[in-house]
Write a structure and sequence with these properties.
Layout lengths: L10 H12 L3 H8 L9 H13 L3 H13 L6 H13 L3 H12 L6 H10 L4 H9 L13 H17 L3 H13 L5 H13 L3 H13 L6 H13 L3 H13 L6 H13 L3 H13 L6 H13 L3 H13 L6 H13 L5 H14 L6 H13 L3 H15 L4 H13 L3 H13 L6 H14 L4 H11 L9 H13 L3 H13 L6 H13 L5 H13 L6 H18 L30 E6 L2 E6 L1
Antiparallel strand pairs: 1-2
Length: 606
């Protein structure tokens, strides 16, 4: 942190003000510096206040303070305009950032750090940032002669902008340009690795890690964490663990971020013992594990449905004085919902009540999980009650939770109430999504199958152009009554309509075909086997529900003659499809969707 030493100035007040400026606390900075701003104040005092406005992303306040600076007859310097440019960048106002950048360039040649600030303002428009990099010669700015940190700041902003826009190819090109012009650094390398990590591009992340090593860039914990995160996002925990072991082998000091990534990866796989083993190893290495690391253990317990252990870990956090926030408390609620205890819903409610009793405000995910739990059992009244409590505590409506209430009415067989809650979407200023449409259609199919196609056409006419609907789940819902009735011809007709609409069939649709074969009179075992084999040969995935339908279609006699165990993916333990009764996500604040199917609805993480 910079310290100020000037004759005639209370340096202690200035240094404290600078600390508050770094935190963006404008009010505290002004209170400390106001007594010093009279009688020929120096520009750097006004610049400290501008720094506070910049870190608070308050462009209007910064511009008003600049006008006061001029009225006080204090001459601005290049740093003054740099702070104003930073204010515009933080506020994501590229035009204002460019204006203040030009004001700085009128006085003195700007630095590459200031150019990096301008590129930060262009993160929403990477092409605009690229144009500024190409114009650097016109600005008397020679990036290759700048310091490594300055060059990295400029090119890093460009790589980050392209990565944020999802254009990883352009991000690579910006990185290569930095290499050619001598602006490459470990920080820039880490930005590119992070971009591939967030895109779950594991092969690319590993490839670029090796490329950085060949460029003699020094890897650090951040570099390894980015690659680990890429594998963690794809649920490849063994690979993430190998990268952690490589980090340790290379003598890099263990820190909390990579530990949290690895623990979170194993937590998603419900590997409680693995998480505990790694936590023990990290604590032995004297890593100060934060609340998120301990939350990973609770999440692992939640994924495994071990509510008692999740409660015990939460209690240990409270006893250790770590003050758990809403995330671990929500994980405990999830653990109860995933358990097989007959009173799981009541216990989840108690966990939620304890959270609120401890003064911790539940978030939309907390309420959404609980509402989804009641919805899965068709308890409409309880789902509506908790939705009302969510609106009272959070105020803003939540589409996922609203869809869950529609689902509760659907599971209860109350199509009228489902329709009522669907109509309330507009009153809550929520836009219906594919889940909303599928849930209402499912309610109608359950209550009056003969009206399904009429309802489908009505919803199709009300769908928005920017919404991807209908989906494969939509057709699975329409196919279900025909499948249960053994009407293979109608199921095939809907299949052909789905394909003609450009929708790729999924396992839920294959389930309908095989179920129609099973329920047909007489049964159609040969047709079921042929359709299943065609599906597998074309690369289609399957799950235990598909295999169950296939076994039902074959019948006892045919089953003994057919070696289904040799068919690809025919094991009962095959990966579940989206419509299967899987769990309710992990404890982190991530988006969730309720996905409909012939087996009901479930909450899945995306």
């Amino acid at each position: 942190m910079r310290r100020y030493f000037s004759r005639g100035i209370a340096t202690d007040s200035v240094n404290v003000a600078n600390q508050f400026a770094e935190a963006g606390d404008v009010q505290k900075v002004r209170e400390l510096l106001e007594p010093l701003l009279t009688g020929g104040a120096k520009p750097f005092l006004f610049n400290i206040v501008l720094k506070a406005y910049a870190n608070a992303a308050d462009l209007l306040g910064a511009e008003a303070w600049y006008r006061r600076m001029l009225s006080s007859k204090v001459s601005p310097n290049v740093k003054t305009f740099g702070k104003l440019c930073k204010s515009a960048a933080k506020a994501r106002e590229p035009l204002s950032a460019e204006r203040w950048f030009f004001r700085a360039a009128e006085r003195l040649p700007v630095s590459s750090v200031q150019l990096g600030t301008l590129l930060d303002a262009c993160k929403e428009d990477p092409q605009r940032g690229e144009s500024w990099l190409r114009r650097k010669e016109l600005l008397n700015l020679d990036l290759p002669k700048s310091s490594e940190a300055s060059k990295s700041a400029a090119y890093g902003a460009s790589v980050a902008a392209w990565a944020k826009a999802g254009d990883l190819r352009s991000a690579e090109m910006a990185f290569h340009r930095a290499v050619r012009e001598g602006g490459v650094s470990s920080r820039l390398w880490a930005i590119l690795l992070d971009a591939y990590s967030k895109s779950s591009a594991t092969e690319k992340a590993a490839e670029w890690f090796q490329a950085g090593i060949e460029m003699q860039l020094k890897p650090c914990a951040v570099s390894y964490t980015s690659v680990m995160d890429a594998f963690a996002r794809t649920r490849d925990s063994p690979a993430a663990e190998k990268w952690m072991l490589a980090l340790i082998r290379d003598g890099i000091r263990l820190e909390n971020p990579p530990c949290v990534v690895l623990l979170g990866s194993w937590a998603k796989m419900a590997e409680v013992e693995r998480v505990e083993a790694w936590m023990g190893r990290m604590q032995a290495a004297k890593v100060q594990l934060d609340i998120m690391a301990h939350t990973a253990l609770i999440s692992a317990c939640a994924a495994a449905g071990d509510a008692e252990k999740a409660e015990a870990v939460l209690q240990e956090l409270c006893t250790a004085g770590l003050e758990p926030d809403v995330v671990p408390h929500t994980a405990v609620v999830q653990a109860h919902l995933r358990s097989h205890h007959p009173e799981r819903l009541a216990r989840a409610c108690n966990a939620m009540e304890r959270m609120m009793g401890d003064g911790i405000a539940p978030n939309a995910l907390s309420f959404g999980l609980l509402i989804g739990g009641f919805a899965s059992e068709g308890h409409t009244a309880e789902a509506e009650d908790w939705y009302a409590r969510m609106r009272w505590n959070i105020r803003d409506a939540d589409l996922v939770a609203h869809n869950a209430v529609i689902n509760a009415a659907t599971r209860a067989g109350d199509a009228v109430r489902a329709q009522l809650w669907w109509e309330r979407l507009e009153a809550c200023e929520l836009l219906a999504d594919a889940t909303s449409m599928n849930t209402l259609l499912d309610a109608v199919v359950r209550a009056a199958p003969e009206e399904a196609l009429v309802c489908y056409q009505s919803l199709k006419g009300r769908s928005r152009r920017d919404m991807a609907w209908p989906t494969e789940v939509t057709f699975a819902i329409l196919m279900r009554p025909f499948a249960l009735g053994g009407d293979l011809k109608s199921v095939d007709r809907l299949w052909q309509q789905m394909v003609s609409d450009g929708i790729r069939p999924q396992p839920c649709n294959l389930w309908a075909v095989l179920s129609a074969c099973a329920n047909s009179n007489p049964m159609l075992p040969d047709t079921a086997v042929q359709r299943y084999q065609d599906w597998v040969q074309q690369g289609g995935s399957t799950d235990r529900h598909v295999v169950s339908a296939l076994r039902a279609a074959l019948g006892e006699t045919k089953l003994k003659k057919t070696k289904t165990d040799r068919l690809p993916c025919a094991a009962v333990g095959a990966p579940l499809g989206l419509y299967s009764p899987i769990g309710v996500g992990d404890s982190q604040n991530k988006p969730f969707h309720y996905v409909g199917s012939m087996f009901g609805w479930t909450l899945i993480q995306i």
